[in-house]
């Protein structure tokens, strides 16, 4: 009897090991990335930086794809910056440009594709999550902290558009982040729950949206919502025209960008509507720069987030907290004449990225901010 029991235990262990091995192989295959090695960005590679493709792991077991930009001919331990956004874009677009420009100014800079998007792993595709996306930034900090040429005590982040709000959430959660820039930011949880300009900030509107999502989950949970509207209607609002000009034309189109193609899963941002990213940003002790365009439709997100971060209360936020213990290192920068998408690539005087560059992104100001606060 004892021999039979012993055999059963051994057999059970063998089966478990076999199952674990199969699971490990399955996970390895799922997370094995095939990265494009040729240069396929929407901007030209600077001759002042070195570039290479890298990957790193998150605490959710996902593998993220990224571009690492390093300044040429600079020695020693450097300050580093992780960059992501806009929401629904890919690292070949705006985030890569930001990272490269920061590397030109002496920083090690990492532009990454968030989980479930671009070249990064995760199924189903184009899915967003408040906790997973915040972890994406913190995992990027993990990666940068382990690089031989990076000082782990000098790491900052940049979040663009919807990733501006995620960056603030990450800064509130992770004290290793010493400086944060939120550029042309959206608060994706606020707009998901309240609609644009809080026009649907009522129980009935949210209930209707929840019912639609519940039906969609049963009808087709894999359906895509579509990216930027295409073709562009003549009566489209100006900010939709701006999105079209960046994401659909040669100015910024990329085949791996959700916004340039079929967008997010219809239910892919469902969790955002019942969440609020910025509850504890009034407790961020590290430095923060909120940068927005004067003419941006999204300007109210940045101004309200900054006000709540400093004062603990703001329009559009039902919760009230205490004033920030370190308001002196918080800054709101409004760029004269800039629209939302002008802060993606600096903007152009004509459509399709034609005409003269408007150069509305203050690269040297950003470098000064990080140099001051990453020391």
In short:
The protein contains eleven helices and eight strands.
Describe this structure as you would to a colleague.
This protein is α/β, with parallel strands linked by helices. It has a single domain, classed as Rossmann fold (3-Layer(aba) Sandwich), CATH 3.40.50. 36% of the residues lie in helices and 16% in strands. The protein is built from eleven helices and eight strands. It has helices at residues 2-31, 94-104, 130-145, 162-173, 188-194, 203-219, 238-247, 270-273, 299-311, 342-345, 363-373; strands at residues 49-57, 63-71, 78-84, 108-112, 150-160, 177-183, 287-293, 330-335. It has an eight-stranded mixed β-sheet, sandwiched between helices. Helix 3 (130-145) crosses helix 4. Residues 1-30 have low confidence and may be disordered.
Layout of secondary structure:
Elements: H1 2-31, E1 49-57, E2 63-71, E3 78-84, H2 94-104, E4 108-112, H3 130-145, E5 150-160, H4 162-173, E6 177-183, H5 188-194, H6 203-219, H7 238-247, H8 270-273, E7 287-293, H9 299-311, E8 330-335, H10 342-345, H11 363-373
Parallel strand pairs: 3-4, 3-5, 5-6, 6-7, 7-8
Antiparallel strand pairs: 1-2, 2-4
Helix pairs in contact: 3-4
